[in-house]
């Protein structure tokens, strides 16, 4: 049964997290990192999907220190507010909160993976380098991936990008990752734009979302 819980970060601050146990025999834990819009219905739905696939899932509320319970619509005002919170959240703080979620999941069983979307896609890629003990990372359309392509990875990772994402140059990101991590898969989905996993009508691409989730599940299952 899904619930909102509290987890103490590295600095002692207790942030909220949306948590759901696995529906089937537990294969491991998954940290789900939000887009810029907060823990909205789409993030919660994704937590539920991972729970149904056998993973205890938890989505930390990344902006709680700035605005507890922040939620934004997918409109210009929501984007502006979400970007401001993302830019105002120190990376070290975000990594500390992710590490706290990983520690929580490890107390309940082995193997902790991470998946993130948009802002969360960037954080998932950074966590693959900076957070100890993660088994695998799946990054979806993170705008900070290219600039951090050279970082050493502590766990296997994959990257998902939309071909028609106007804010992220897919081929350039793939080239940057290929230069430093030739064994790290970068999947580019033709006809898919930014946010293709998000089920909002203006962004969702079911074919790309299903294939990316299948690839992510394969990575997590073999981690």
What characteristic shape results from the CA principal axes? globular
Structural class: alpha/beta
Report the strand count.
8
Q: Identify the CATH homologous superfamily.
A: Alpha/Beta hydrolase fold, catalytic domain
- Rg, Cα atoms, Å: 16 Å
Query: Can you give the helix content as a percent range?
Result: 25-40%
User: What is the distance, rounded to the nearest whole angstrom, between the alpha carbons of the first and last residues?
Assistant: 26 Å
- Ranges where pLDDT stays below 50 over 5 or more residues in a row are none
The proportion of strand residues reads: 15-25%
Q: Order of strands side by side in the largest beta sheet? A: 1-2-4-3-5-6-7-8
Largest sheet: 8 strands, mixed
Brief digest:
This protein is an alpha/beta fold.
What does this molecule look like?
With 223 residues, the chain is of the alpha/beta class. The chain has a single domain, classed as Alpha/Beta hydrolase fold, catalytic domain (Rossmann fold). Strands 1-2-4-3-5-6-7-8 form an eight-stranded mixed sheet, with helices on both faces. Strand 1 and strand 2 form a beta hairpin. The longest helix has 17 residues. The radius of gyration is 16 Å and the shape is globular.
């Amino acid at each position: 049964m899904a619930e909102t819980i509290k987890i103490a970060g590295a600095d002692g601050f207790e942030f909220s997290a949306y948590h759901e146990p696995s529906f089937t025999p537990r294969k491991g834990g998954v940290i789900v990192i939000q887009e810029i819009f907060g823990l909205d219905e789409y993030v919660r739905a994704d937590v539920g999907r991972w729970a149904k696939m056998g993973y205890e899932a938890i989505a930390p509320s990344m902006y709680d220190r700035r605005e507890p319970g922040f939620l934004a619509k997918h409109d210009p005002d929501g984007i502006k507010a979400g970007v401001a919170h993302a830019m105002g959240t120190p990376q070290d703080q975000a990594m500390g909160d992710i590490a706290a979620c990983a520690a929580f999941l490890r107390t309940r069983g082995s193997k902790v993976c991470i998946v993130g979307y948009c802002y969360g896609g960037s954080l998932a890629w950074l966590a693959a380098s900076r957070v100890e003990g993660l088994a695998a990372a799946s990054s979806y359309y993170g705008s900070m991936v290219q600039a951090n392509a050279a970082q050493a990875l502590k766990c296997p990772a994959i990257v998902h990008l939309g071909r028609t994402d106007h804010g992220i140059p897919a081929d350039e990101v793939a080239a940057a990752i290929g230069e430093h991590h030739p064994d790290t898969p970068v999947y580019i989905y033709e006809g898919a734009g930014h946010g293709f996993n998000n089920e909002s009508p203006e962004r969702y691409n079911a074919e790309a979302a299903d294939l990316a989730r299948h690839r992510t599940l394969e990575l997590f299952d073999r981690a």
